[in-house]
Amino acid sequence: xxxxxxxxxxxxxxxxxxxxxxxxxxxxxxxxxxxxxxxxxxxxxxxxxxxxxxxxxxxxxxxxxxxxxxxxxxxxxxxxxxxxxxxxxxxxxxxxxxxxxxxxxxxxxxxxxxxxxxxxxxxxxxxxxxxxxxxxxxxxxxxxxxxxxxxxxxxxxxxxxxxxxxxxxxxxxxxxxxxxxxxxxxxxxxxxxxxxxxxxxxxxxxxxxxxxxxxxxxxxxxxxxxxxxxxxxxxxxxxxxxxxxxxxxxxxxxxxxxxxxxxxxxxxxxxxxxxxxxxxxxxxxxxxxxxxxxxxxxxxxxxxxxxxxxxxxxxxxxxxxxxxxxxxxxxxxxxxxxxxxxxxxxxxxxxxxxxxxxxxxxxxxxxxxxxxxxxxxxxxxxxxxxxxxxxxxxxxxxxxxxxxxxxxxxxxxxxxxxxxxxxxxxxxxxxxxxx
Length: 435
Ligand SMILES: *Cc1c(COP(=O)(O)O)cnc(C)c1O
Hints:
Blueprint: H1 19-32, H2 64-76, H3 83-96, E1 100-104, H4 107-117, E2 125-129, H5 134-142, E3 146-150, H6 161-167, E4 172-178, H7 187-197, E5 200-204, E6 212-213, E7 216-217, E8 224-228, E9 241-245, H8 248-257, E10 262-263, H9 266-269, E11 279-280, H10 291-302, H11 304-322, E12 328-330, E13 337-338, E14 344-348, H12 357-366, H13 382-387, H14 396-404, E15 405-408, H15 416-432
Parallel strand pairs: 2-3, 2-4, 4-5, 5-8
Antiparallel strand pairs: 1-9, 6-7, 6-13, 8-9, 10-11, 12-14, 14-15
Helix pairs in contact: 2-10, 3-10, 4-5, 4-8, 11-15
The structure holds pyridoxal-5'-phosphate.
């Protein structure tokens, strides 16, 4: 773990407050409510926070259109899976360049069904990234296959194709890509590994709705792609997701498994039995999306281009604002991608700071800036560490990134002022703890 800088008062003291005077003066500030005027006095030391109102790291933007469509669904009497879920699926397919889409209640469900539909099971290996949310790896275990975790590229924190290639064995059935933060993986390199060996590429594109690689939309780059419409994602239904594919048989299988394995077309085949008739042809799950939630997604889709434009504006503004703060590094989009900018992660230049990442987050919180960390690498979670016998040394890039990573606020409803506050707070904390 990173050095516990917060535990040693001297190392953790802000600039200009070091050494003997510091402990005493800090106490003075707290006890006597001393000057709040110095603009660079940290909020944690009694100074004025960069902003008065807390700015969360992500807030959904639900507009009048979403509300109207939700009411329409409620008034229609059809509140479970129905016309709105189907319309959402159709539009998601159209937007992502895939022939078929199935709307489900989460990306986790979409990924699980993707692996099921592909027939991945016991003794199979699925290569994926350690730099992801746990759902990516849990679903591999749900089908009783073996997750094979690999390290990431330093600039994108996406799967490193060379390490993927090194991890392939005769049992490798799939490569499960993760488009971190909204930046597509290097699908050219991954396809070059998967294609000749008959390995299937499945994409966890929970961050990458609307992204593209070399002009091809995410959704058209893998055999099956999963999107998330979770509350913090760049398009939301509150809870929801979708699986998209060009393969009709896979889409039908996913559809079937998403609702108990009930074959809705049975009545067609058996003609005389009427619309009440169904047959269960597999023990499916209950992953269908409610029309009430799909309605939110339809409203979001109407405004999606506007959302994405705003994300790019905010990223441009904050990246420019942080360009001359050498204590932090922002992430860049590679030239051949359209980045969905779901997240705005920074990396701390710890060598230039007297504090660690945890303390930096605490200081930003005191300045009323919310943050998150994406991600705690999978190999650090006890279950995977122990059951897969993983050691941190196997993942040097992810380990290094994890010590430095902070996700700053980014959501379309943020004002320029909010973005400037984020920059000001990062600058203030960086300056105070500059080495
Ligand atoms: C959010 C997320 C998921 C899970 O999405 P749900 O819709 O909540 O199931 C999966 N993978 C990644 C990388 C995510 O960030």
